[in-house]
Each structure stands twice: as C-alpha cells, then as structure tokens.
Specification:
The chain is α/β, with parallel strands linked by helices. The protein has 2 domains: 24-152, Immunoglobulin-like (Sandwich); 163-391, Zn-dependent exopeptidases (Aminopeptidase). Helix content is 29%, strand content 26%. The protein is built from 10 helices and 17 strands. The protein has helices at 5-11, 14-21, 163-168, 197-214, 231-240, 274-284, 299-307, 311-330, 366-373, 375-391; strands at 31-41, 45-52, 58-63, 66-71, 74-75, 81-83, 90-98, 101-108, 120-123, 131-137, 151-152, 175-180, 218-221, 245-252, 263-267, 341-344, 355-362. Strands 1, 2, 5, 6, 9 and 10 form a 6-stranded mixed sheet that branches. The chain has a 6-stranded mixed sheet with strand order 13-12-14-17-15-16, sandwiched between helices. The chain has a 5-stranded antiparallel sheet with strand order 7-8-4-3-11, with no helix packed on it. A hairpin with a 7-residue loop joins strand 9 (120-123) and strand 10. It is elongated.
Amino acid sequence: MKVTRRNFLKTVSFSALVVALTPRSVFAAPNNLRSIRTGLQPGGKTRLVIETSSRPSYTLSYADKQLVVNLSNTNGKADAQTKLANGTLIKRIAQIQDGSLLKVSATLTSMIDAIDKKQIMILEPNGDNEYRLVIDFVAGTGIGINTASAVSTKTATKPVVNNTQKTSSVSKQHIIVIDAGHGGKDPGCIGKGGTQEKTVVLSVAKKLKKKLDANGYKTYLTRSGDTYLKLAERAEFAEKKHADLFISLHANANPSRDMKGFSIYTLSEKASDEEAQKLAESENAADKIDVNGFEQFSKDIRVALSSLQQHAVAELSEEYANGCAKSMNRASIEQQKGPSVRHAPFAVLRSTVPGALIELGHLSNKSEEKLLKSDAHQNKLVDAIAKSVNSYDFDV
C-alpha cells in the first residue's frame, strides 16, 4: 500500500504520532543552570555570562529596561551562584521556570537595542567552567525592538566568518602582535641537527606577518632580528600597541625523541598538567639570564598582570586557542598527544591582550626538526595560523 499522510494518520497510534511529531529536544536530557555572572568590558560593554551543564539553545526577548534570556529544556537552580559586577547595566537578575523553559530575566538601568548575534558567543567547557553563553551589550534607545516577540538566535553557535568576509571587514584594522620567542643570547631549544629555536620561530613570524598584512590586519613583530627581549618587554610591547591579539611562537623539546606535534597554551595561574608546568618554567627561565624576577615591570604591566586575571581576557584567549588548534588539525598538521589546548603560567602571556603561545613542533624530534626548517612546512603553519586569525571574532 502506498504510504500517504492520510494512511499514516489512520494506521499509526495517537501516542506514536505524538512521538513522531514532537521536537527531538523534548526528549533530550534536560540542561541545568550552573551559575550567572556579569562583568564590565572595554568600551563600556556589559557582559552577561550564563553557565550551563550542556550546550544551551536560547532566544532573547526584550521589554522596557529588561533583557530576558529564554533557555529551552533547562532547569533553573534557586541557589545558583550569581555574581553581579559593579558598573554594568544589570542591577538584578531573576530566574523564572515555565515548564521546561527557564527564563533568566535581567533588570537593566537603561534601555538597550536588540543585541547583534556578533555580540553573542558560546564557549566550550574549559577547566572548572562548563558551557557558557556570553552576551555583550551597551545602552541604547530600544527603538525597533518588538517587545512582544523573542529575537531568535536558536542554536547558539559563534558566527563563522569566511576569509573573504573577514578580509573585507577589517576596516577597523585589528592589531596583531606576533612574538618570535627567544633571540640574541637566548637561542631557545636546539635540535640534534643544530637548528636553533630562535631562528625557526623568527622565520615563521616574518612569514605570518606578511600573510596577515596582506589580509588587511595591522601586525607588529616584537623582534625582527636576532635580538634578546625580556618577557616583560614582549608583553609590554603588545600593551603599547593596543593589540587585539597576541601570538607567541615557539618550538618545543622533549626528553623523549619520539615526542612530536604542535601544542597551544593559554595563561593560567595553575598549569593544566605537569608537562605544561615544566614547559612554562623553561620558557620563563629565559628572563633569568640577566633579570631577577619581574620587579622591573612598568606600572602599565603591573596593571596588566592584575587585569589578565579577569575572566573575559582568559575566555577570549581560550576562544582563539581552540580555533587555532582546529585550524591546525584541518591543515593536517600533527598535534602532540593530549589535549589540543593546555594552560600554564607563561610570563609572556601576562597582558590585558588576549593571546596564546603556540609550540610549532619539536626540534628534539629528528623528522620534525627537518620539517620546521623547511619553507614548505613553515608556510603550512603560517596558512593555518592565518586562517585561525581570520575566523576569530575580534568584535565579541
């Protein structure tokens, strides 16, 4: 018998029909609210962060001096930790459970306009954090907002921007500082074949600068020659240039000659693992050549050291690092065994500028030492890193 909609309705049971026509999300395990917090971002932006146990599906709705985040299939939590920072547009937050829908209602000090999707992102779990829905907004007029209906943003992914779009939209000329690690009297690690880390990373840094300049970015090198720089000077350089992103390039070494592959690190006061801690200690030791500690930091850098602990910079750094790892993987560049992004207290990353430290590979591995010296592989690394920059949302 030919199956038509009419035959289907005649033969299928009512309960089965309900199951067939009910959205899949209804049967999914419910999401759970973990915490809510707010913060103040550069440019006077208010940031609302809602942490949940799994990836949220949401819509936004607006009323007079009110923003409501509607989280589908989500359970509220009466004792959820709520941290309200001073100086934001949010004066109080309430949870309203409406069946499986959780409404997080933020009462505001002023009207706002509809929030652009570019000001919304979802961050993957990281360390002690689970999924985080991050919403940035500023004061506005409220004109044009339909308060009777939700503004659909549905499934919650950060906008993907292709290379062409990104290049044409770089009218702001986002500033990127590329840091070639080591230099001068500090050669970094040295491969069995005599290849010095400082030489490899400077070569890659220059090629990356040329590529990013061609893509419309304003880029600076912390060093353009065989020069020794203190770690503090590198961080301070990025601050003074008002950089939007800081990329520190290095090459690794390991007691095991079999170890190879790239790895990416962001700043954390606690290392994600023992290997990350040892690597940070090794990189930080460069300053011990003629500097005792970091007492000579300028006032700006001392402020930066404190400011970096703010959650926002850490999250933005994590966002870039994850995107860079994905770009490297898509380019079929071998990754070191273990997590794609790790965390450690690297002195060079102590800045208010979001950034990451990229270990391009292992000079201690014979085959990878040859690769890292070759123009072809360096160009492959540069292309992957450049694509990660193009995909990074600077405006969030």
